[in-house]
Amino acid sequence: MAKASDEEIAIHKLILAKDSLALAKLYKLYTNPILYTLVSWAPKYAHMDRALINEAINEAFFSYSKNPSTYNPDKKTLLSFLVMAAKRDFLNILEREKKHTIGKQELPEDVELEEKIWNSSIGNKHTPESQLITKQVKEALVTELALYFNSETDIEMAKLVLLKVRETEKFSEILEIENLTKEEQQSEIKRHKDRIKKILERNNVETRLKRLMS
Amino acid sequence: MNEKINLLESAAKKASTNKAYMSYYIEQYSAFEDKTSEEVRSLLNCSQEDYYLLCLCKAPTLGQPDFIDELNKIGEFTHISALMLNNIIKQVSALEKFSSSNLIVPLMAARDKEPDEENLKDKKENDKD
After folding, report:
1. ipTM
2. C-alpha Rg value of chain A to the nearest Å
């Protein structure tokens, strides 16, 4: 992933130093690109309720301004960090609104995010609406997982864990351990799966995704 | 352009609840002077974008050695007169001090008694005698 540009590092330093112009400069620099990205990402809401998108962007900017250490300039650009945070905040706001609308109706905790649910969301690719849902669910999943996992390998592993995939081959392929013996592969996969499951459970990722897909 | 301004306006509104930002001072000033944000913007003689960017600047603290430098820095960034910003911050700070209960109590104690109150007191003392 691309590192931060010199301009981004400069603004990050201003935020870290709690400079009086830092937040204003952040808005001046990123308002247009982040609006463009968010509106393209969620066009339905861009037309229906722009306030939700604005709230998500504000939440992302203010949170970063308050806790700038959450951003690592060596790992990604500041813009991609802010976009990711705004998308996450947008999904949280949407979830909150949805809960509010349906009267805090909780999903049962023992319902699994089975592959068929996932497939029902991404399987039907014939209508424009289903394509939009597919795109949003996929992006929601990637955005959510990127918050907790730093490597692409972990994100791919986490997807398989959430889908309850059990085939060793698929995990081995991601971990690139096909050359090991079957037992070694299983042992290595178990070690990774346990670590990933702990992170998913600790952050309640499965429940959050189920709500989004319901 | 409108979308950008809408976002900046919502950000300024969010910042107005936090005393650390200029947005808080602008909001308080507008309320006290009974002016709309458009009227304050006209007074500051700036564009809409600069007005909302001003709201997102951290407010300099009165009495700090770098107060004037910070005012000038914000003024330069937003193309707004530092003198106007100085007036707004000082006016709002003075109002806040004045309206704090610690100052109101001594003022009330020191005020002159109303003639009716004086008469009532005298009457009570005469009745005792």
Report:
1. 0.78
2. 19
